[in-house]
Fold this protein.
Amino acid sequence: MLILASLITLAMAVVSLFVGVSDVSLASLFAGGMDSRAVEVLFISRIPRTMALMLAGGSMAIAGLVMQMIVRNRFVEPSTTGTMESAGLGFLLVTLFAPGWPLIAKMAVSALFALGGTALFLRILRAVPLRDVLLVPLIGIMLAGVIGAVTYFVAYRANLVASLLAWEMGDFSGVLRGRYELLWIGLVSAMLAYIVADRMTLAGMGKDFATNLGINHRAVVSLGLSIVAVVSAVVLVTVGMIPFLGLIVPNVVSLMVGDNMRRSVPWVAVGGAGIVLACDITGRLIRFPYEIPISVVMGVVGSVVFLYLLLRTQKRVAA
Amino acid sequence: MPAPSLPKKLSRPALVLIILAALALISIALFMTLGAKGSWSFVLSFRGKKLLSLVLVAYAISVSTVLFQTVTNNRILTPSIMGFDALYVLIKTAIVFFLGVGALISIDSQIQFLVEVLVMVGASSLLFRWLFLGEERSLHLLVLVGIVFGILFRSLGNFMQRMLDPGAFNVLQDTLFASFSTTDPAILAISCVVVAAVSLVGLRLMHTYDVLSLGRSQAINLGVEYKRTVAIILVLVAILVSISTALVGPVTFFGLLVATLAHSLVGNSKHRYVLPAAILLAIICLVGGQTLLERVFAFDTALSIIIEFLGGIVFIFLVMRKSAR
């Protein structure tokens, strides 16, 4: 099954290579030789874009899964816990005050902010003793709103609102060779999640339970937080926010294969890459030759899928 | 805190209302007079229009939130968290998308406004009915469904906006992102009429609110015609939400902030205290906040950002305190 899913995702990746305004087809690739325009477009734009889609999709979905394990709540992901917003605030501040720093340094600042924001979220959760399932995502969304407001306010004072909106909106159309490679860092951290998957699964069963089984709960949670923060920062800095990805993919996968993280991580990665590819291709085709940014397509598709999931679970419980 | 010096007759809710009313009057007075230069007749009429729209928005948001919470029997959901101002934006976008930008410019703004409100009431009544009058659903599910609906409406609106040509997009943007400082007088006038009508209907139902807040089965037991009453109140809420969104655009946490504060200040949940307290609080926040920003800090359009910021923080603290008890 997993192989089938990977094949479908791979097929979409191939399709993604050949979709676009500039004509890239097998015929044009072979006709022109190695230095033709089609080959150039392929290597400078199409391959980087497709890679970026798969990297961002896979690692964001895994970040969502890790987040859900740490918080022990199915309805959180980096953009509903303030993580993404904190990363955005960090990036905005570093862009304002140290515009000359290299991108990787800016990204590091952004990751630190993301870490701080997520830690704040966990702190607030700890101060709420009656942990209602409903309250957790709600507090997260509030916190995200508060941090978002701070970011917006800074941007407003610095006359940067338009550019803030532009780079926070998830969009792959600007991805070129040399502009996406940071995403590999995201992939590496997401792979770390696979290595510690068993411990994560146990940590997801609660602090006391995990400690009883000899897990250093604190260390696992900190590692998980760092993974989430790095992935969020990397994705935010290179392509912007992609809503719902970290929410839907882990939920669908959990319905299919259960909550053992070692089993679900590959599924989540493939699923994340696949859904991002599908949404991006849709966005490119629907108003050809113009593009609709992926965050918009993802918002529509994601919310419909999520609504379906929510109402379906309800029916099953009621029956 | 005991207050022995007070005469016995003045109960806590009454005291709260008096203090709030005084604060509201002070903020209104400051808003009208602070830093005014030149001709008074100009200043008063210019600021009066702005004041009217602020008060109208404060009224619409606070009343709709309190009633919504009563009907749904919870203190967390609000119409805007359920995505209803996003629905308004979607409807407006859809009008431009399907009828063209000409419709937005050529049709009289009052008629346009009425049509939008009507469509909004229809659409939201359907959604409300499905969510609240069908089978019993958990609050947890409703909140999430609401938030997701909000994102869906926003994304769909965004999606349609992307399909528009740039010129139409710009015109639409202008009408969508109205702020507290710009308001069309024609829409203001019609809003006043609609709000007055809504308030009359709302007043006639006043006796049912306290009963409704006991929950569905209690209310039915106590003889309230549940479905009909709730349906009417939800329509009223939908109208108020469309008016406030039309005047200032979406403000997510404001209603929540005001309603929660009103409940905790008044100390009981009788609507004859909570409703006026919420309205007064909303006026203090909006008018006072705008005064502070405009005259003291010289920021002009940032009020909604700051409300969002404070509303979120206050809410988080309230949730923490409430569950710590």
Remarks:
- Chain B touches chain A at residues 76, 135, 137-141, 143-145, 147-149, 151-152, 154-156, 158-159, 162-163, 252-253, 301-302, 305-306, 308-309, 312-313, 315-316, 319-320, 323-324 (CB under 8 Å).
- Residues 70 and 213 of chain B are 5 Å apart (CA to CA).
- Chain B has a mean pLDDT of 78.
- The two ends of chain B are 18 Å apart (CA to CA).
